Amino acid sequence: MPHDPHLAELMREALRGRSGVSEKKMFGGYCWMLNGNMVCGVEVGRFMFRPGKAQEAQALARPGASPMDITGRPMAGFVWVDADAALDAGLADWFDFCARFAGSLPPK
Q1: What digits encode the pLDDT tens for the residues 18-55?
Q2: What was the pLDDT predicted at 1?
Q3: Where are the beta strands (DSSP E) in the chain?
Q4: What distance in Å separates the CA atoms of residue 27 and residue 5, rounded to the nearest whole number?
Q5: Residue 78 placed within a domain
Q6: In-domain check, residue 107
């Protein structure tokens, strides 16, 4: 997934100093992990967040969120969020919301 270097830097700044958070080059872009489990990523003009299936409806109710669909079928538990909407809500807020799911998974 191609990425926007500016958006990636904004995510780095929002997550700087957080315990258990790491950055990994994946899908031609960058993703951020919590204890080895994917929480979010960056693409051109938007962010990918992983709220998990149980929180997906809540995530989709937030401004700028839409189902993540790469192959013609939505990927359960993942959403796209328009960059402007994610920045307005706060990247740290989106990360914390999705970290509830990732934090419930066993560390990798």
Answers
A1: 999 999 998 778 999 999 999 999 999 999 999 999 99
A2: 61
A3: 21-26, 29-34, 37-43, 46-49, 65-69, 74-82
A4: 14
A5: yes
A6: no
The CATH number of the domain holding residue 60 is 3.90.1150
Q: In DSSP terms, which residues pair with 65 in a beta bridge?
A: 81
CA-atom Rg of the chain in angstroms: 12
Task: Give percent above pLDDT 70 in the chain.
Answer: 99
Structure tokens at 99: 């970290």
Residue numbers of the domain that contains 89: 5-102
Number of domain units in the chain: 1
Q: Does residue 22 belong to any structural domain of this protein?
A: yes
CA 82, distance to chain mean position in Å, is 11
Tokens 């919301």 label which residue? 97
> Do strands 29-34 and 74-82 pair parallel, antiparallel, or not at all (unpaired)?
unpaired
> Would you say residue 49 lies in a domain?
yes
Q: pTM of the predicted model, to two decimals?
A: 0.94
What span, in angstroms and rounded, lies between the C-alpha atoms of 19 and 56?
Answer: 25
Tokens standing for 47?
Answer: 């962010």
